[in-house]
Structure formats: C-alpha cells, structure tokens
Specification:
The complex is a heterodimer of chains A (184) and B (436). Chain A has 184 residues and is an alpha+beta fold. Helix content of chain A is 40%, strand content 12%. Chain B contains 4 helices and 32 strands. In chain B, the strands form 7 sheets. In chain B, strands 1-2-31-30-29-28 form a 6-stranded antiparallel beta sheet, covered by helices on one side. In chain B, strands 3, 4, 5, 6, 7 and 8 form a 6-stranded mixed beta sheet that branches. A 4-stranded antiparallel beta sheet of chain B has the order 11-10-9-32, with no helix packed on it. The chains are: A alpha+beta (184), B mainly beta (436).
Chain lengths: 184, 436
C-alpha cells in the first residue's frame, strides 16, 4: 500500500515539476537528475480521494523526538532549499525532498508549516523582500499541488534581512538564497 | 588625480554611537573661506568648527585651519581684509555668541567678500542653549546659499537603521535619527525583528517604515514629536516600501495580498484608509514606489520585462512607461527635485552601484559610486548630494556622494552595521534668521 501511495505522489511530483519548468523563463536546461522518477508512473489524472484514506492515518515515524521531519528511511529530512541568484526555481532534488514534506503534511493534517523566503544581500532590500516571497511561493505552490492544504501553510518573506551566513562572499550568498520550512 | 582627504573623528566628542566622517574629494576648485572662531561671552563652546565641517562636507568649500589665520576678528571693525587676501581667502565669516538672561543664547554672524571688501550677509539667531548645533547648521545654510545660490541642506536630519549583533540570534534593530553630519543620534524605535524602508513625510514631522515586530511585515507611521506609533492594517504577504506623497495626504506602498507584489496608494488623512491598487501585473514584482515631485505619477521597480527595471505610471491614466534600458538590474529609483533626473541602484558586471540618469536625453546611467553592494539612495532636499548604504570591510556603512560624483564621504558607525538611510526634507529646526 505504501508503495502505491508513493508512486502516486511521484506522479504528482513530475506533474508539478513540469508546471514549474513551464512557468520558469530563461532557464538553463534541467540538470540530468530526472531519472529518479520511474517510467511507469501512474497517470496524473488520479483522484486525490483515492489516496486520502491511506494518508489519513498519521504516522509516528514522520517526526523524531525533537519534532524534526523524517524521510521514510528514518533520516532527517532537509528543510532548507537553495536558489540561484535572482531566481526562484526549485531544483529537481529539492522537489523530491519537498514531495516527502508533502507526504508528511497530508498524513498529518493538524501540522502547520511556516515557509520563510530569503535572499542574499545583493540588490535592494524591498526588491529582495519580493524575491524572497517568490521563492516561498515556489515552495508553497509545489506543496499545495501535492495535496497539502493551503490552510496548513503560512508564508513570510524576510528578503535579505535574516542571512544564515553573515559573510559577504559567494559562499555566504549561496547559503542565504533559500526557502526554509518550519513545522509548527 | 590628486585627492584631498580629510579625517575628522567626532565620535570622541559626542559618544561612541556617533558616526565618523571620512571625506574624499576630487581636486576641483573649492572656494577658500575663513570661518573665524566665534567670540563668546562665556564658555558656551565654539560653533565655528561645526560650520566649517558642514561647508567641507559639501565639497564646495575649503575652510582654512584656524592655526593658519593671522587674526581672529569677531566684529566688523576688527576685520583687516589684507590679512585674508594674503591667505588667498575669497570669503570670511565672523561671529559671536551672547548669553541671555533668560538662559538662551544669541549668535550673530557676518559674511564678507574679501576681494570686494564688503559684507554680503549677516544674521542673528536666538535659541535655547542646547540648540547650539542647530544654530551652527543654520548659519552654514545661510553661507552656502549666499555663495552658491542653492539653498543649504545642513539643517536636516537622516534616518537609518542600526543593527547590533548582526547575524546572531540576539540581533537588535534600531531606527535612528541623527543630524545630517551624523551627530546627536537618537533611537526612535527598537526591536529584535527586522526594520527597513524608513521615509519622511514632506513636513518632516512623521516617518513611515516597515517593521517585522509582530513576526510579519507591517507599515508603521510614527510622529516624531510625540513618538506615537500607528501600525497600518496589515495584509497577508508583503506590506512594504512606504513613501509619502508630496502633499503628505497619501502613502504609496507595496502589498502582495492578491498573490504578487503590486503598488498601492492609501489616503492616510482619512479614517477609511483603504488601499487603492495602482499596478496590475500578475506574476511580476512591482515594488519600491517613489513619487514624482508633482504627485501625479509614481516611479517603481518592476521585473515585468524579465529583469528589474524602473518604470513610471501616471496615477490618473495608468499609462506606464519604462525609464531604464541599460543593464539587467536597475532598482529603487528616486527623482531629483527637478523631476528630470533619476538616481537608482544599477548593477554593472555584478557590482551594485548608485547611478544617475537624465530622463530627457538618451544617455545611459552615469555611475556615481566606486563602492560595491550600494543601495538605498536618498537625496538631500536641495538635490546636491545623496546618501546611500554600502559595505566597508564587511560592515554596513552609510556614505554620501555629490550628484556630480566629485565629493564622497563615509559615515561608518562604531555601534554596528548601519543601513537604509533616508534624508529628511527641509526642517524648521529654528525660527528664521533675522538679518542684522
């Protein structure tokens, strides 16, 4: 049963990824990370109701003792997603990780998520607030398209105001261009 | 090119939080002037240093050191023009302080044209004793206007955000207000959450800014006299970039309540305070509104063409035109008081500079700054200088550059990172100068 659910979600992931790729403009080609999606995906038109029954049961293995989200393997699931300069496009790897977050959130409808959007320090502060919001929106759109209720998600953009790394070089900047998901 | 560099550290005089000023001026032809130490009936402190420093910062004057003066006149009958001609002075400023029985102080000054050997301007200012710096700035304004024909902007203030312990979990954000020379800083509001985008009302009595104090961005209007703060109703998403209209009745702002950032205006004089949407461009970022001097249009940043560029929208007709075409990142524009010249953040080869552009010619932007990561340009009310935020050795500092790019000075703070400067309009810090 678990296998089915995951295959269904992979289909959604691919669909959402296609939508995002379609929306993105002036992008470099998608990195060759796509093979992770199996070829025998279930058609996209599957009804969400089909999987709701199996998802209704919260799984105690979704979080560790410190309330951190877990992968099916039991490892801690990444909560930070990084972006290129001026961009708000999620990588294929991040989409796969967010898919796992979506699974956790659809199984745990009482859990809420805060998405923070962030930028590096370059450029103007108000424009960066808007860019951070766009990054947060990319995460939110993916999660809601994967079945997470909009009411489960709050979003706030901090622009360049809350850097993870206070440095002033590319190493720091690449850590600061991020969206962060925080479970509440 | 020969550079003249002044170092003037005032921090030790006014406490550690004061800004230090470092001036770097091109080798043009500043006007030689002697600002003679003012005579004082008691030890009220000499304001000639403050006046000199204002004139130096304008880049248009080169006051001589008082050690090099041959005499120290304080009244017209003591002036020997030959003493000042020998020194190559074009102008001479003398003055005196008089203590009053009511505890106030009266300062008189006289400005002379040395080659013409005549007095060209004089004045008398009375104020409480703790307003000595205001008096000095007022006299500097008078001198500047008499000689250059341009109204002085020394009696102005700057707002900025000071961040202490940046990059730590106990960072403090302080909204600060200081004199235009960085002196007399005081904290208007303080929080552990980000503050940004401070701006002045046109009468200089109120300010607006963005505060994350509730965990979400909201626009706050604060009265400077009473310190009464009022948070505007905040909407889901962004609430940012407040800018008062030239008549002070409206606030332009950015809201993303409809899904993406759009420009709005709001009547703040009426109780209803309903935002009126100006831009309609789904999926684009529209932000950083600024008013044209006539209040009829807004300029703003938009990436509707794929990259951030500056646009202007007519508020009545909604007709929108693009103003910048050079480069792939132009943002946070402000118009000079003439409405014809634009300053904004311009990215060139990955470096963020402040640039200047004449809207009536096809010339591209002229880069004014040599620093990097420059942002938040804010113009002095007379349009001769602008203040902006930049980085120096990994710290956020403020810097000022003249609109011709010739004069530059830095205002670092010893207290932390400083950013988001906003230069005030003309202020009535004192009653008008009375001629003698």
């Amino acid at each position: 049963m678990m296998r089915q659910v995951r295959r269904y979600n992979v289909a959604l992931l691919v669909a959402a990824a296609l939508i995002l790729v379609g929306c993105a403009s002036q992008q470099e080609p998608e990195p060759a990370a796509q093979p992770a999606a199996p070829v025998d995906v279930v058609p996209v038109q599957s009804q969400p109701a089909q999987s709701q029954a199996v998802q209704a049961e919260p799984e105690s293995t979704d979080f560790d003792s410190r309330s951190r989200p877990l992968m099916p393997t039991g490892r801690i699931l990444a909560t930070k997603f990084y972006f290129e300069l001026d961009q708000a496009r999620l990588s294929a790897r991040d989409l796969r990780l967010l898919e796992m977050h979506a699974n956790i959130l659809t199984r745990n409808r009482d859990r809420r998520l805060v998405i923070e959007g962030h930028c590096d320090e370059r450029g103007t502060r108000e424009y960066n607030l808007a860019l951070g919001e766009r990054r947060g929106n990319a995460v939110r759109s993916f999660l809601t398209s994967a079945g997470v209720r909009r009411s489960q998600i709050e979003m706030v953009s901090y622009g360049e105001e809350r850097p993870d790394d206070p440095g002033h070089d590319e190493s720091a900047w690449s850590k600061n261009r991020r969206a962060v998901v925080i479970y509440r | 090119m020969k550079k003249v560099i002044w170092w003037a550290v005032f921090a030790s005089l006014q406490g550690l939080d004061a800004l230090e000023i470092v001036i770097d001026r091109g080798n043009d032809n500043p006007i030689p002037i002697a600002v003679v130490p003012f005579a004082s009936s008691n030890s009220t402190g000499d304001i000639s240093g403050v006046i000199s420093f204002d004139l130096i910062r304008s880049g248009q004057f080169s006051p001589i050191e008082k050690e090099n003066m041959l005499s120290y006149p304080s009244q017209p009958e003591d002036v020997y023009f030959r003493d000042w001609r020998i020194l190559g002075m074009e102008y001479l400023l003398i003055g005196r302080h008089l203590s009053r029985v009511d505890g106030g102080i009266t300062v008189t000054y006289r400005l002379f044209d040395v080659s013409a050997e005549r007095e060209v301007k004089s004045g008398e200012i009375t104020a409480p004793r703790d307003r000595m710096r205001d008096i000095a700035h007022r006299i500097a304004d008078d001198v500047y206007e008499e000689i250059t024909g341009i109204r002085g902007a020394f009696s102005t203030r700057i707002l900025y955000v000071l961040v202490e312990n940046i990059g730590t979990s106990y960072a403090r954000y302080k909204l600060e207000m200081a004199d235009s020379d960085g002196e007399r800083p005081r904290t208007l509001f303080e929080t552990s959450e980000p503050l940004l985008s401070p701006s002045w009302s046109p009468d200089g009595q109120r300010i607006a800014y963005v505060s994350f104090e509730t965990g979400r961005p909201s626009i706050v209007i604060q009265e400077l006299e009473s310190n009464v703060r009022q948070r505007l109703p905040s909407y889901p998403g962004l609430n940012g970039a407040p800018a008062f209209s030239p008549d002070g009745r409206e606030l332009a702002m950015v809201l993303s309540r409809d899904g993406n950032p759009e420009i709005y205006t709001m009547e703040i004089a009426t109780p209803a305070r309903r935002p009126r949407r100006v831009t309609r461009h789904v999926s684009a970022i529209d932000t950083e509104p600024g008013w044209t001097p006539d209040g009829k249009s807004l300029i703003f940043t938009s990436d509707r063409g794929g990259r951030p560029q500056i646009y202007r929208v007519d508020l009545r007709t909604s007709l929108t035109e693009r103003l910048t075409y050079h480069g792939d990142y132009n943002a946070r524009a402000r118009l000079l008081p003439d409405g014809r010249h634009l300053v904004y953040v311009h990215r060139r080869e990955g470096i963020y500079h402040i640039a200047w552009q004449d809207l009536e010619t096809d010339e591209g932007p002229r880069v004014l700054t040599k620093t990097s990561l420059d942002e938040s340009p804010s113009l002095a009310p007379n349009g001769t200088m602008l203040i902006y935020a930049t980085q120096d050795q990994g710290r956020g500092i403020l810097a000022v550059v003249s609109i011709d790019g010739q004069v530059k000075y830095k205002l670092p703070s010893s207290a932390g990172d400083v950013r988001e400067p906003s230069w005030s309009p003309y202020l009535d810090t004192l009653s008008a100068t009375r001629g003698l």
